[in-house]
Amino acid sequence: MAEVKETSKKRNVAIELWRFIIAVSIIGFHIGFIIARTCNGSNGYFMNPESKWFFGSSEVLLIFTLTAGYFMVAHHEKLEKDKVYSAKSASKRAWEYTWSRIKGLLPVLIIGYILGVIICTKFYYPDYNLQQTLTMIINSAWEFLGFHSVGLRSSGNEFFNLNGPLWFISAIIIVGYFLYWLLCKNKDLLVGLIAPFGFIFFTGWWCFTGTRASQTAWSTFGFQTASTNGMGGNATDATATLGFNNGLIFVLIGLLGGIILYYLVKAIKNYKFSDLGKWGLTLLNLACSGLLLWYTIYQPTYFNLERWTVALLIIVVITLSLLNKDYLTKLLNNDYTHKLFAYLGSISLPIYMLHYPIAIFVIRSFGKNTAEMAYGFWEIFLPAVVLTIIFSALLNELLIYIKRPKNNK
After folding, report:
1. In which band, very low, low, confident or very high, does the pLDDT at 390 lie, cut at 50, 70 and 90?
2. pTM: predicted TM-score of the whole model, two decimal places
3. Fewer CB within 10 A of the terminal residue: the chain, N end or C end?
4. pLDDT at site 255
């Protein structure tokens, strides 16, 4: 996703490395989810102990939304200095910003959907005939347009198995438009009231209800009029509700947090920490990063970390990475691996957007019979990661080549 950095200084690749780690971990989460669902039925998730690997990564998508909110403000702050840009209406600037994001992601989005249709109808629904495949595609028209994150999705579960994770990308774009409009219209209102109040209110409600990020779950803030639990379950035709899709709320929390984070980091950026202070920040970063990686990879039961503790770990780690004052972040920004980490970060979103159909391809191609499949690091996870990274890297290079100015000679 094209993002304008706040300065022209050397790129902070500590953030890029975290993005890459989370994108790769999400592959493991969805592989475990698919295998467990296939082996044990729609309600038998994660009964296979090995499929618990990377299950914690479902909670760390907050890293993507926090950084998206941070760089959204950085984009606005940089362009706000341009008098021609500032003279435009808030709605025009918001649409321009949104279109720039869509335009940057559009090739990968299209390929992601095409892969989803081809691979999933070939490998996930091998018995589908042409009529069933075309019907599924037509019924997913709103979803192809990126509106499944607001609830405009097919009534069945088919599209979730085409390339369901793309709900997260569309949610960032949709929520980002409204927040960017507010940023242009009344920055003081957004930064001083809406962002902190919204972040505190929604995170508190999210914790209290135990709601999870999902494109199918619907939250009503207590306005549901049926017995169905509208705050965490799936909305049905019999559920009269007034509310919002949980995926949008999850993304809203992260973007609001990223807005707050930008001004927090900006406020303490120029503070001169002593050596002792820098070592204190380093130890804090090491502890939080270690716990976060542990949770992401295996979701440990030894400490039984709550999801909201994990969210706090994420906020601390991302804040320290953006602040770039501690020795761990300085180490990650070394000259020797700087280009590598920057490149890995640049393909993190393509990895996320393309991994789901590729994972299904690997499961069906290298796995055993669906009733006997077991999660395997070498047999399933590693091939899926390698193929996704290679495909994402090749696609990234192709897009760079297409965008490169051509020599007219």
Report:
1. very high
2. 0.85
3. C
4. 96
Copy the structure tokens of residue 341. Answer: 């980490």
* Confidence (pLDDT) at 180: 96
Distance, CA of 369 to CA of 391 (rounded, Å): 26
Tokens of 78: 């940089």
CA distance 200 to 391: 40
Backbone torsion region of residue 46, taken as left when φ is above 0, otherwise alpha when ψ lies between -120 and 50, otherwise beta = left
Residue 151 has a pLDDT of 67
The pLDDT mean for the chain works out to 79
In angstroms, rounded to a whole number, what is the distance separating the alpha carbons of residues 102 and 303?
Answer: 41
Dihedrals phi, psi of 234, to nearest 5 degrees: -90, 135
For 113, phi then psi, to 5°, come to -70, -40
Token pair for 188:
């003081």
How far apart CA 275 and CA 75 sit, in angstroms, is 32
Q: Are 258 and 63 in contact, with CB atoms under 8 Å apart? A: no
Cα–Cα distance list, 222 to 232, 241, 395 (Å): 11, 9, 45
From 281, 312, 333, select the one nearest 62 (Cα to Cα): 312
Token duo for residue 191:
């930064």
For 279, half-sphere exposure in the C-beta direction (CA atoms, 13 angstrom radius) is 3
The pLDDT tens digits for 115-135 are 877 776 666 666 667 777 777
Q: Which two tokens stand for residue 123?
A: 């490998």
- Residue carrying the six token digits 């009733």: 371
